[in-house]
UniProtKB/TrEMBL annotation:
<feature type="signal peptide">
    <location>
        <begin position="1"/>
        <end position="22"/>
    </location>
</feature>
<comment type="function">
    <text>Involved in the biosynthesis of pyridine alkaloid natural products, leading mainly to the production of anabasine, anatabine, nicotine and nornicotine, effective deterrents against herbivores with antiparasitic and pesticide properties (neurotoxins); nornicotine serves as the precursor in the synthesis of the carcinogen compound N'-nitrosonornicotine (NNN). Catalyzes a late oxidation step subsequent to the pyridine ring condensation reaction in the biosynthesis of alkaloids.</text>
</comment>
<dbReference type="InterPro" id="IPR016169">
    <property type="entry name" value="FAD-bd_PCMH_sub2"/>
</dbReference>
<dbReference type="GO" id="GO:0071949">
    <property type="term" value="F:FAD binding"/>
</dbReference>
<keyword id="KW-0732">Signal</keyword>
<feature type="domain" description="FAD-binding PCMH-type">
    <location>
        <begin position="72"/>
        <end position="246"/>
    </location>
</feature>
<dbReference type="GO" id="GO:0042179">
    <property type="term" value="P:nicotine biosynthetic process"/>
</dbReference>
<dbReference type="GO" id="GO:0009820">
    <property type="term" value="P:alkaloid metabolic process"/>
</dbReference>
<keyword id="KW-0017">Alkaloid metabolism</keyword>
<keyword id="KW-0325">Glycoprotein</keyword>
<dbReference type="Pfam" id="PF08031">
    <property type="entry name" value="BBE"/>
</dbReference>
<dbReference type="GO" id="GO:0016491">
    <property type="term" value="F:oxidoreductase activity"/>
</dbReference>
<dbReference type="InterPro" id="IPR012951">
    <property type="entry name" value="BBE"/>
</dbReference>
<dbReference type="InterPro" id="IPR016166">
    <property type="entry name" value="FAD-bd_PCMH"/>
</dbReference>
<keyword id="KW-0560">Oxidoreductase</keyword>
<protein>
    <recommendedName>
        <fullName>FAD-binding PCMH-type domain-containing protein</fullName>
    </recommendedName>
</protein>
<dbReference type="InterPro" id="IPR006094">
    <property type="entry name" value="Oxid_FAD_bind_N"/>
</dbReference>
Amino acid sequence: MITFKKSIIFLLLSIWLSLSWATSASSHDDFLECLSHHTINSNSISQVIHTPNNSSYSTILNSFSTNLRLTSKVKPSIIITPLNESDIQAAIYCSKIHDLQIRIRSGGHDYEGLSYISDTPFVIIDLRNLRSISIDTENKTAWIQSGAILGEAYYRVAEKSKKLAVAAGVCPTVGVGGLFSGGGYSMLSRKFGIAIDNIIDAKLIDANGKIHDRESMGEDLFWAIRGGGGTSFGLIVSWKVKLLDIPEKVTIFNVTRTLEQNATQLVYKWQHIADKVDNNLVLRLSLTSRESPVLRGKRTVYVSFTTLYVGGVNELLREMKKSFPELGLVKEDCIELSWIESVLYSWFPVGTSLDALLDRKIKDLAGYVYFKRKSDYVQHPISIDGLEGLWKLMNQQGQSPPDLMFTPYGGKISDFSESETPFPHRAGNIYQIQYGLNWQKREDSPKNIARIRKIYRYMSKYVSKSPRAAYFNYRDLDLGVNNKGNTSYAQAKIWGEKYFKNNFDRLVKVKTKFDPTNFFRNEQSIPPLLSYA
Ligand code: FDA
């Protein structure tokens, strides 16, 4: 731990060094030398530092880069995979004096690749080695390092107790670092809130290399990193979360209906109940377009009602009969299992061992593909006409089928005010939409990007307005990017208000206080006030 006096010296030295280095081109060798002089243990250097000359460099660089749409002319000068906090302090210090940007990567799931792509010289700090999870079942808390994936966190908690759970995200391969700092929606969110609603402490390293916990960082910074995106403020090494009481059995079902099976009316009705049903119930829809099973040669929309109910099958059937009898759910559609099995079941075939939750490879994209995602919030049910217009766009022949996800809000998510955390999408939102399109060939990129933007344009009259809100963790650079070099407040406000609404200004104030020189920056990082334009 760097003492206060040491960190002042560190700060002065780094200001002096950045000034004196500004005119000389930063060299790879100098950077390496700096790292080796600053606490990276010489015995572990090959485990921590990966240069383009090492075979480990491309393996590590490409290990999460599944979205081939994202390319950059600049490759990272070096990848650092720290084994401890002092490795991170050294990486921050040396990046600063050599004027290299850093990109922090935990699980590598960023939709626009901001954790491993940059157009200016940069280094990646990849947290894959920092993924310990320490669990206190008595006090129902856990410290989880950012480099862990959600599957690991779920697995380790369930290993200790089948009566405790973590509210984080649906997909087990997502990294804790990115998900926790941007929100975190899971199948438990209507009952327990989103991930950030259950974070009670964090350990952060700031731009001066100083390590903070909640007490030393203060409530403003602790507020900002829970939903405002950690990467604008510092590197979060670990998070302390509340563990949540979960019954030994939960119930799931996945029932699919096509347009020929009344899906339009079902989705229309679903919009009226999704945010109001029992908080134990998350009734999520995934929608895609494929050939119709009854009308040969024609496409139809398939709507899958994917559910987790925190409780037994009989209670679930009672709730469904009361709120959504039109779906016609029967006991045979449902499976009772433990919460940890329900996480596994949503991603893997029945019979897969729980150990699959420890695998970091992204599953749902079936290897390397090109993809684009966008998001919206719906505050008033979309009319039948509106839905039919959407189906028409989804069903266009000869095009890759879009995948849409309608995720219900309400329940515990609405118990927090819009300003309690930077994540503002609380009461008043019925559901969130994620638009997704995957394709296989580079030459198809322009037409598919145009297509998803067309669907998004069509939806403008049905979704939230002023601002048209979006989920920060579904990163979308179409919403706007910072100016290169000098990050302007005015430029950042364009995308910032969409993700954070009125919380954007408070995030700017926190940024100004804790990172006034804008060391932690990317295409969508919060700007400090000094660069107001
Ligand atoms: P990655 O490592 O790419 O980081 C994302 C951003 O956070 C980057 O800007 C990075 O610099 C920053 N960052 C990462 N670690 C940091 C740290 N320790 N300190 C500071 N900054 C840090 N979301 C959701 O809410 N619920 C869900 O169920 C899913 N499911 C899902 C499935 C799949 C297949 C994908 C690709 C994405 C999701 N998401 C999601 C979205 C996900 O929450 C979002 O992409 C997260 O930012 C991913 O976090 P990673 O750590 O994996 O990404």
